[in-house]
């Protein structure tokens, strides 16, 4: 295997990494991605200039990602399963999703719109100052569904492919897309490489996530499947579209639509079908992400132990 671990050992490292995340949550101080963000910003300031901005973006991506991936691979090779589990813990964001979104649900339930607006503004880029309960519930549910793929299932997928080094590759590429992958004057050329690499790395995980949302739908698997097939292609992101459309269909709720960015209302394509989002849809979206995590860990564990049995037969 690319991880260098026996399948059963990789399964144990997988479970250990997920449990560490659930027990400890996101590192409060000295999180590696914070330091990486500073490095990425410094590279962007240096290389996002001149006529060859696409080449500058490629060089910046390589300088930011490849040395750290090589270090992760060496650490995993010589320090073993514990480092694989540690890197998975640092890369996965399951508990962080819960900790950032369920307080929004709690604030909405007690009718504290000001608190809910402040909490929502921490996890989305849209304006929340005038948002009502449905707007905030929609933002929270969308964030859970989309980041379930980016922060959890894509990370698990690349851990299964390449162990700890796979996690580092995926999470760093995903972070650079979040920092540079904008279609504006500053990043349209420079960030194009980062956006395309993230699209490629996320292609399979996103569709497995969408399929998982369909299988675990609360209110009709067929509806979730139809929403995926009919609505995903209209979304601007080739990977977020399937994930969010199938997730909205699985919840039986209407997402997408109008959202305010920098004072301008944007009409986004519709997602799902049913009533407008309410506070409880945040909780239901979290439960869908949680059940999907359990499904992935269970299926991966069974498959890896079975593969181990075949290898040693």
Radius of gyration: 20 Å
Kindly state the number of beta strands. 2
Largest sheet: 2 strands, antiparallel
Inertia-based shape: globular
Short account of what is shown:
The chain has 313 residues and is mainly α. It contains 11 helices and 2 strands, in the order ααααααααααββα.
Notes on the structure:
By secondary structure, this protein is mainly α. The protein has one domain. It has helices spanning 7-24, 32-47, 53-79, 81-91, 94-109, 113-121, 133-180, 192-215, 221-231, 240-251, 279-311, and strands spanning 255-261, 264-271. A two-stranded antiparallel sheet has the order 1-2. Helix 3 packs across helix 7 (133-180), helix 7 (133-180) runs antiparallel to helix 10 and helix 8 (192-215) packs parallel to helix 10 (240-251).
What are the key terms here?
single chain; 313 residues; mainly alpha; two-stranded antiparallel ribbon; 72% helix; 5% strand; globular; transmembrane helix
Lay out the secondary structure:
Elements: H1 7-24, H2 32-47, H3 53-79, H4 81-91, H5 94-109, H6 113-121, H7 133-180, H8 192-215, H9 221-231, H10 240-251, E1 255-261, E2 264-271, H11 279-311
Antiparallel strand pairs: 1-2
């Amino acid at each position: 295997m690319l991880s260098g671990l026996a399948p059963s050992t990789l399964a144990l490292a997988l479970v250990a990494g997920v449990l560490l995340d659930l027990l400890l949550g996101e590192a409060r101080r000295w999180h590696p991605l914070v330091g990486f963000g500073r490095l990425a910003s410094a590279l962007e300031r240096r290389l996002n200039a001149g006529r060859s901005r696409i080449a500058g973006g490629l060089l910046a991506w390589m300088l930011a990602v490849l040395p750290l991936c090589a270090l992760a691979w060496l650490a995993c090779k010589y320090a073993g399963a514990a480092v694989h589990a540690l890197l998975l813990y640092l890369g996965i964001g399951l508990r962080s999703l819960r900790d950032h979104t369920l307080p929004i649900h709690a604030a909405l339930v007690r009718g504290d719109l000001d608190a809910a607006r402040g909490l929502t503004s921490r996890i989305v880029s849209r304006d929340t100052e005038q948002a009502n309960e449905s707007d905030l519930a929609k933002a929270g549910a969308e964030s859970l569904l989309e980041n379930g793929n980016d922060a959890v299932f894509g990370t698990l997928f690349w851990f299964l492919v390449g162990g700890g080094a796979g996690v580092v590759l995926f999470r760093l590429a995903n972070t650079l897309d979040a920092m540079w992958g904008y279609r504006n004057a500053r990043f349209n050329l420079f960030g194009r490489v980062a956006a395309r690499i993230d699209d490629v790395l996320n292609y399979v995980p996103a569709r497995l996530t969408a399929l998982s949302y369909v299988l675990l739908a609360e209110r009709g698997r067929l509806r979730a499947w139809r929403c995926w097939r009919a609505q995903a292609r209209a979304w601007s992101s080739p990977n977020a579209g399937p994930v969010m459309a199938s997730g909205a269909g699985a919840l039986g709720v209407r997402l997408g639509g109008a959202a305010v960015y920098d004072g301008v209302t944007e009409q986004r394509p519709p997602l799902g079908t049913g009533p407008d989002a309410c506070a409880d849809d945040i909780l239901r979206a979290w439960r869908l992400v949680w059940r999907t995590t359990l499904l992935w860990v269970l299926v991966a564990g069974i498959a890896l132990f079975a593969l181990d049995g075949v290898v040693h037969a």
